[in-house]
Amino acid sequence: MIPGPTPVPEKVLQALSKHPIGHRSKEFQDLVESTTKNLRWLHQTHNDVLTITGSGTAAMEAGIINTLSKGDKVICGENGKFGERWVKVAEEFGLEVIKIESEWGTPLNPEKFKKLLEEDKQKEIKAVILTHSETSTGVINDLESISSYIRAHNTALSIVDCVTSLGACNVPVDEWQLDIVASGSQKGYMIPPGLSFVAMSQKAWEATEKSNLPKFYLNLKSYRKSLISNSNPYTPAINLVFALEEALNMMREEGLDNIFLRHKKHKLAVSNAVKALNLKLFADERHLSPSITAIDTGEIDAEEFRKTIKNKFDILLAGGQDHLKGKIFRVGHLGYVNDRDIITVISAIGKTLIDLGKITSKEVGEALVEASKYLE
């Protein structure tokens, strides 16, 4: 029950165990054609969706270095660990970074983006880089509003980390006219780590013609060229592509609306149960991520709490990062997670609180009743 790697369905594990095939074979080309079609469906786009052997960070770095040039001015949204990471990546490549910050646990303010973009009369801002679902704090940012302000600017690109939002909530790439969307296989895709995905708009491809930042393995032009023949410029993780095909087929069978509804009800079940257990939500309740819930333990050591649940119930929860270590724990509920998993983790948290003398069995019962309202 962490935000990645997430549980992997049995069908996907079986696909993963197939014997590898040649990555230049007709069989593999057919596989790439199939998965690419399904990736466009998942991203709700008619544009290119490229598959890279690498993590979500590789996808985000690729989006940055393929469309920008040294000295370009960019806005970076920072309200958690991953927002901080994109600031570091941008600065590492010599970009001029303007930070829009928000306290960890609160969402980025879209109006701050609007103000900076409207004031940029000379169109010096070349991109806006932000995280949609901030995994470190359990907050989801208002990507729809922010992307509308980016479009109004007419020059800046949107470069978006959708690693824990894609496959968990609605990210209509074409409708919102998102330019570069990055995601990773070990989250909502329900397969092991090792693949990442980059959706590219026509505007983003036009920007690649002006980019002068160094790139070789992550040169997206190479991936686009090879995709024409349903191939890959380098040796891909063949067995992960087998797994991807099976996972995407499962997702298509469930349907996008049902996937989004399942994640929403799990978010509501966990967050409302937590309050019934006399714990506090760390994130702004109006902006909770559908993928993960961060819980403030107050005077309880969150690391010891996690350790107890792992030892007693064999359930792994995520800890806090940086200054939040020991202060919060995080319950992941994205990907291959069902109602039983939600009830089980709430029960384990409740029993641990009983053993610590913090609540009684009555509160645990009330928490389970509260969760069940949303699961139904």
Number of domains as seen in the coordinates? 2
Fraction of residues in H or I helices: 40-55%
Principal-axis shape: globular
- Contiguous uncertain segments of 5+ residues: none
CATH superfamily of the largest domain, called what? Type I PLP-dependent aspartate aminotransferase-like (Major domain)
Number of strands: 13
What's the story with the biggest beta sheet?
Answer: 7 strands, mixed
Compute the number of helices: 13
Largest sheet strand order: 1-9-8-7-4-2-3
Order of helices and strands: HHEHEHEHEEEHEEEHHHHEEHEEHH
Please report which band the strand proportion falls in: under 5%, 5-15%, 15-25%, 25-35%, 35-45% or over 45%.
15-25%
Which key phrases capture this entry?
376 residues; Aspartate Aminotransferase, domain 2; Aspartate Aminotransferase, domain 1; 7-stranded mixed beta sheet; 4-stranded antiparallel beta sheet; 44% helix
Question: What does the model show?
Answer:
- The two termini are 21 Å apart.
- A hairpin with an 8-residue loop joins β12 (318-319) and β13 (328-332).
- The model has no long low-confidence stretch (mean pLDDT 97).
- α2 packs across α9 (238-254), α10 (256-276) runs antiparallel to α13 (361-375) and α12 (339-355) packs antiparallel against α13 (361-375).
- The protein folds into two domains: 10-254, Aspartate Aminotransferase, domain 2 (3-Layer(aba) Sandwich), CATH 3.40.640.10; 256-375, Aspartate Aminotransferase, domain 1 (Alpha-Beta Complex).
- The protein is built from 13 helices and 13 strands.
- By secondary structure, it is an alpha/beta fold.
- Helix content is 44%, strand content 16%.
- The strands form three sheets. It has a seven-stranded mixed beta sheet, with helices on both faces.
